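DM from R.C. (forwarded with permission)

"hey, sorry to bug you on a friday — could you get me a structure for this? deadline for the figure draft is monday and I only need the backbone to look sensible"
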Amino acid sequence: MHTTEVEVAVIGAGAVGLAIGLAASRRGRTVCVLERDDRPGQGASTHNSQVIHAGLYYPPGTLKARHCVEGADRLYAFCRTYNVPYLRCGKLVVASDDSERGALEQLAARGVANGARGIEVVDRAFVRKREPHVHAAAGIYSPDSGVLDAAAFVTVLWGLCAAQGVALLPGTPLMGAENRANGIELWSPRERILARAVVNAAGLHADTVSATLGAETFTIHPCRGEYAALAPARRALVNALVYPLPHADGHGLGVHLSRTIAGDVTLGPTVRFQSEKDDYEEDRLPLEAFLIPARTLLPGLTLEDLRPAGSGIRAKLHGPETSFADFHIARDRIAPRVVQAAGIESPGLTASLAIGEHAASLVDQLL
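My reply, with the result:
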């Protein structure tokens, strides 16, 4: 079998992998992107709330905080330049009663410390003016938050990579790898590729890929998030993005309301750690499970107002016993030709273009 030589091989063609491939190719590198699925972005990139985050939630100084703020700026500019549908609609994070005001103010202070622009603590009247049907004692208003069409974003990234000469290889799972004197030889069912540098952006499968590359050992913990949706006749109850305070255990941002680019209003995601990385449907929650969190935000809802919706699986670097793990974006400590871009959960979609530049700069260091 013929072996193709490239400078950079990226494993994974989600939003992050494609952003890395694009950034590396724009730096003059020869690049290929391997994707196990037949199409790009079939994992977490398109199974999420499609929200552009402003940087409220993450500990200051972490990669999640830095890349979220920088990534949002890059993403808005990208959407304008390449006609990806988006809306800078703003977001409210609401306190349901006065006992949550302290936590609300702490969250606002964290957002300001991270560099999120325009963050302000607002009163009940402000919330009611923007979201007349939402119950809240107070809130945080984030004017830079928004939504985008995630599938369109991935499609544009794919096209830009192709235009840059990136070799895009869908339906090409990584089956094995071997270190050579001048690179890492990657094996797939149809291809052999000799790469001087390999970037692991394999999402839920990043731990398996890292082991295949002979690189660092870590574990990806799949965490499923499920969604319900408002019935079409009830979508007018929500104008933009409405979030409760994030979970105290740190595992999610809370079951929130999101009006999508398509005009749907989703409610979710929930949080459920599981062993399977591709199980989106087994033992789905009943709609009744969404009603209590929904009524916290929209007290008038009934079960008849809800419809089943999709689900996604987060690629977490921590299990249910731990509250936080940062993105893992670094040159591998064991395999000198490998760059890791693992544990990219929320705000990974928002941060993807910033992650792309970061990973491409690490590739430059090792080449």
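R.C.: lifesaver. The longest strand covers residues 306-316.
me: no worries. The chain has eight helices and 20 strands.
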